[in-house]
Design a protein that fits this description.
This protein is of the alpha/beta class and 297 residues long. It has one domain (21-279): Protein of unknown function UPF0759 (TIM Barrel). 37% of the residues lie in helices and 14% in strands. It has eleven helices and nine strands. Strand 1 (36-41), helix 2 (60-67) and strand 2 (70-73) form a beta-alpha-beta unit. The longest helix has 18 residues, at 229-246. The radius of gyration is 19 Å and the shape is globular. 39% of the residues are buried. The model is unreliable at 290-297 (pLDDT under 50).
Length: 297
């Protein structure tokens, strides 16, 4: 994941910004007594998750879905798969597993939410609904150069989105969050339509760490730097998630990216272990070996 990458000697303040003033209000408005937590990687490909799969693993997804309870399905960004493919993925995974598909690039990057995007959205959704109850939140990632001048496109897209399918949106241009008038309109739009405002924690883009939740779910895309600081950053997230739980958040969707992708499972396992303790939940720790203490560094 090259987005937000930094030079090796660049100094970054990795501390999490305070929550937006309206975040807790949003959580308390629909407070939940229980919390659901989904944690996963960007893909299950063996070429990227080197060392994760035991020798002789025949089906990567089948094994992955017994270690993690979620996948950030980035493959759907590049290709709209036929319904039959989603049915196969559904059949291979346990009942508690969730897929979080990324909307296809034709929607976000080629047509850029233009008026003629509806047929592509319909074709995409016609396929992903075959995941049935294993369909998590669909997410839309807009390109860096998609600016607030096209807010009308976002309004039309959001208001036409089928309400029965959860949606999250990621904006990357800084003006969405650092222009008070724009951000106010955006947050109101997302909140009124129960759409998650994706938080991206990337080293080189601290300007978009808005910390504004717009519904009862947090959708976080975390990008590590292949450094020991990744542990400290994740611990800060554990504490923030605990705060959100105390404020009534219903669901956490947290996906870990790492430039050295074979280390993804270790970093994710570290996060899960600590969340299990502070949230008093019992998520499986991937590839847990009680006799061996694993570390990234």
């Amino acid at each position: 994941m090259k987005f937000g990458s930094i030079s090796p000697h660049q100094e970054i303040d990795f501390s999490l910004p305070p929550d937006h003033p309206d975040t807790i209000r949003t959580l308390q408005k629909n407070a939940s007594d229980e919390i659901k937590v989904f944690i996963g990687c960007p893909n299950w490909n063996k070429a990227n998750l080197k060392g994760f799969y035991p020798r002789g693993t025949k089906d990567e997804l089948e094994y992955y879905s017994r270690q993690f309870n979620a996948i950030e399905l980035n493959a759907t960004f590049y290709r709209i798969f036929p319904p039959e493919q989603f049915e196969k993925w559904y059949d291979k995974t346990p009942g508690n597993f969730r897929f979080f598909p990324k909307l296809n690039q034709e929607i976000s990057h080629w047509k850029r939410l233009n008026d003629d995007v509806a047929p592509v959205v319909d074709r995409f959704l016609h396929s992903v609904i075959h995941l049935k109850e294993k369909l998590g939140t669909v997410f839309l990632q807009m390109p860096n150069n998609f600016t607030p001048k096209d807010l009308d496109r976002v309004i039309n897209f959001v208001e036409s989105w089928p309400k029965e399918i959860p949606l999250a949106i990621e904006f990357r241009h800084t003006d969405w969050f650092n222009n008070d008038n724009v951000s106010k309109d955006l947050y109101q739009l997302l909140e009124e339509n129960t759409i998650s405002n994706i938080i991206v924690d990337s080293a080189g883009r601290r300007d978009i760490m808005h910390m504004r939740l717009t519904n009862s779910q947090a959708f976080v895309r975390y990008v590590g730097t292949n450094n020991e600081s990744d542990y400290t950053r994740l611990q800060d997230w554990v504490e923030r998630i605990k705060h959100w739980k105390d404020s009534g958040i219903e669901q956490i969707n947290f996906f870990v990216h790492q430039n050295i992708e074979e280390e993804l499972p270790l970093l994710s396992a570290h996060l899960i272990k600590n969340l299990n303790q502070v949230l008093e939940i019992d998520l499986k720790i991937p590839n847990e070996d009680p006799g061996e203490q694993q570390t990234l560094f």
